[in-house]
From TrEMBL:
This is N-acetylglucosamine 6-phosphate deacetylase. Pfam families: Amidohydro_1. It comes from Microbacterium telephonicum. Zn(2+) binds at E128, H194, H215. GO terms for molecular function: metal ion binding; N-acetylglucosamine-6-phosphate deacetylase activity. Its cofactor is a divalent metal cation.
Length: 378
């Protein structure tokens, strides 16, 4: 059965094509074109896009929950949080876990592995900790941060049964460079983050296989004219993608624009959302730490540190476009760029023929109107 969405502005592959159509068959993109050519197809359902914007489904490779639920809290919480973000266009996601004991993290990545078997839109887990610099811990429990060691790495990777996709670590810690190599050999993408790394230390991590920076500018040294730090090291390295939280709180909009200019095609927009995303202000918990959300900003009760966000991917899209970024570039930062981090080009984050039929229909002011996953409207 073929579904066609026609009369849209198709934003994909770095371009915006007016009066476009796309066809979905058996959960994949079967074809695309412009004008009335779709009428020659055998179509079970034709949807008039009315000149609205159609993009690939968004990927979020760093977020902790939403809809009042956190991914740390088990199978039901995972379902709740995924539904909340899916309604905002995030069709596929890597689920992030905050710092905990190795025992707890092993159990949690196993739960996510089970969830991924039931739900193909769950692409695996991201370990944000416990191998972080205590001086840049952000909203992580200091007492649970620990040294890098081979036994802990092996246990966590094994518990995920092939679904631990990403780990954030501070490469300057003792054993950090060796740990980067161990994770990469296990097929895990390594992100430099929550770190005090110098420019040279970050470059050393990239040279042994780290390819990502966790929420660039946050929980790491800033850019200094004599000490450029990990951000400049990443911008200068074509192998490295930089995550960015575009909520207007974590990073000033002008610095967001600076990042896109400094690393064109290598910015992946992430939400770093916690349970309060798509939920009310109030009291929450993140990794065992008390958090209060006021006017959509989440901060630790203990010291006022930012504790994740309440961002959704569609809101991030609107912010960067309002800041002057061309729409095709903004969409790429939510789709093709994060997909490329994990080698998923042409499968997710794209509406090329043969890709998974995940799509988001947006109003002219970039509000979500409809979402499809594997060709089915959700």
């Amino acid at each position: 059965m073929t579904t066609v969405i026609h009369s849209v502005v198709l934003v994909d592959d770095g371009t915006a094509q007016e009066d476009a159509w796309i066809a979905f068959t058996d959960g994949v993109v079967a074809g695309r074109g412009t004008g009335e050519d779709w009428r020659a197809l055998s179509v079970a359902e034709a949807i008039d896009g009315g000149g609205r914007v159609l993009t690939p489904g968004f990927l979020d490779i760093h977020h902790h929950g939403g809809g009042g639920a956190a991914y740390d809290d088990g199978a039901e919480a995972i379902v709740t949080a995924r539904a909340a973000h899916r309604a905002h266009g995030t069709t596929r996601a890597v689920l992030s876990l905050v710092t905990a004991s190795v025992d707890d993290l092993a159990a949690r990545v196993a739960v996510i592995a089970d969830a991924a078997e039931r739900d193909a839109t769950i692409l695996g887990s991201h370990l944000e900790g416990p191998f972080l610099d205590v001086g840049h811990k952000g909203a992580h429990t200091a007492s649970l941060l620990r040294a890098l060691d081979a036994a802990a790495i092996e246990r966590l990777v094994d518990a995920g049964r092939g679904t631990v996709r990403q780990v954030t670590l501070a490469p300057e810690l003792p054993g950090g460079i060796d740990a980067v190599s161990r994770f990469v050999e296990a097929g895990v993408v390594v992100a430099v983050g929550h770190t005090n790394a110098t420019y040279a230390e970050a470059r050393a991590a990239f040279d042994v296989g780290a390819t990502l920076v966790t929420h660039a500018f946050n929980a790491m040294p800033g850019i200094h004219h004599r000490e450029p730090g990990p951000i400049v090291a990443a911008m200068a390295d074509e192998r490295v993608t930089l995550e960015l939280i575009a909520d207007g709180i974590h990073v000033h909009p002008d610095v967001v624009a600076l990042a896109f200019a400094g690393a064109p095609g290598r910015i992946a927009l992430v939400t770093d959302a916690m349970a309060a995303a798509c939920a009310a202000d109030g009291a929450y918990e993140l990794g065992g730490l008390a958090v209060t959300v006021i006017d959509g900003t989440a901060r630790l009760d203990s010291d006022g540190a930012i504790a994740g966000s309440t961002l959704t991917q569609d809101a991030a899209l609107r912010l960067v476009v309002a800041g002057g970024l061309p729409l095709p570039d903004a969409v790429a930062a939510l789709t093709t760029t994060p997909a490329r981090v994990f080698g998923w080009e042409g499968r997710y984050g794209s509406l090329r023929p043969g890709a998974s039929a995940d799509a988001v229909l947006l109003s002219p002011d970039l509000r979500v109107q409809a979402v499809w996953v594997d060709g089915a409207r959700v």
